[in-house]
Design a protein that fits this description.
- With about 350 residues, the protein is α/β, with parallel strands linked by helices.
- The chain is built from 9 helices and 20 strands.
- The chain folds into 2 domains: about 5-45, no CATH class; about 50-290, Aldolase class I (TIM Barrel).
- The chain has helices at about 95, 110-120, 135-150, 165-170, 185-190, 195-210, 230-240, 265-280, 295, and strands at about 5, 10, 15-20, 25, 40, 45, 50-55, 55-60, 75-80, 105, 125, 150-155, 175-180, 215-220, 250, 285-290, 300, 305-310, 315-320, 350.
- A 9-stranded mixed sheet has the order 16-15-14-13-12-11-9-8-20. Strands 1-6-5 form a 3-stranded antiparallel sheet, with no helix packed on it.
- Helix 2 (about 110-120) packs across helix 3 (about 135-150) and helix 7 (about 230-240) runs parallel beside helix 8 (about 265-280).
- The radius of gyration is 20 Å and the shape is globular.
Length: about 350
Amino acid sequence: MNAPARWWHPLPDGRIRCDLCPRDCTLHEGQRGACFTRKMQDGQMVLTAYGRSSGFCLDPIEKKPLNHFYPGSSVLSFGTAGCNLACKFCQNWEISHAKTQEDELLPASPERIAQSALSCQARSVAYTYNDPVISAEYVLDTARAYREAGILNVAVTAGYIHPEPAREFFAAMDAANVDLKAFTDGFYHKLCAGHLQPVLDTLTHIHRETNCWLEITTLLIPGQNDQAAEIEALSAWVAEHLGPDVPLHFTAFHGAGRMQDTPPTPAATLLRARDIARSAGLHFVYMGNIHDPAGATTYCPGCGTALIARDWHHIQAYRLTPTGCCPDCGHVIPGHFSSSLDHHNISPRPIRLS
């Protein structure tokens, strides 16, 4: 359904400008923004998919991926439709770029989602599949309902949002995984129809000015963003601006979106990226979308012992103390950990709202 939107202003020529993200769409009456979900209607901006979703799934939190946010817990994942970037390699292309009509989406009021999360014993709810920032009004209303029910909020996002709405959006989140797609503006312009600097601004804001737990994912695409020099620059930036304890996930690309013919990322590329990032001083560097238990395991930066052993998204061993410390050397592991182990080790499964 349509609902009043925020973060816009009128222009002298009768159009309106959206102030939510750096695309700065200017709209005539009846026109939608690039994200497809924000529209000029009767001289105002409306959010056209408020209270509706493209689907729900119960996932392990490691699938987001978040490795330092209540490991082993379950998360209820859902999204809407549309996106404010146009990534040629998007693996959720049908949801984010197919211009899904609102009447094809499922009714999903904040209260109904909270009830479903409680009934399936999810510790958190993740806004994912498409980018949640384009539905910020809906997300914020939903986040309030979750917090009242004792449910945590997780955003999986590209972080392409202006500073003012970002302050309110990430203040409502308990954790976020931000997709840092590459470390060159050329990549963002050519393959995503966006720019790099706004994403870096979002990352620094989350880390320095909020209580939202932050992890980063970079999908390495052969021939596009997998060169050693770029990975060195990315890792050095994270170390300098965010510090050594923000987890960084390098994940393998498999043909998707409009890049079906691009070959998959070799495991050796991820191993090299992990070595580069660790050499830059980052303590927690993970590999995803390939089967490599060592690359998914959390190691103590103090003594090197394996603390949380993972095989894909399943936890095989958990050695953290109830206060989140290494039992061998006492090193405090940054993140959010339960005093009682929360290892459901569930497999992803679709959920219907109660």
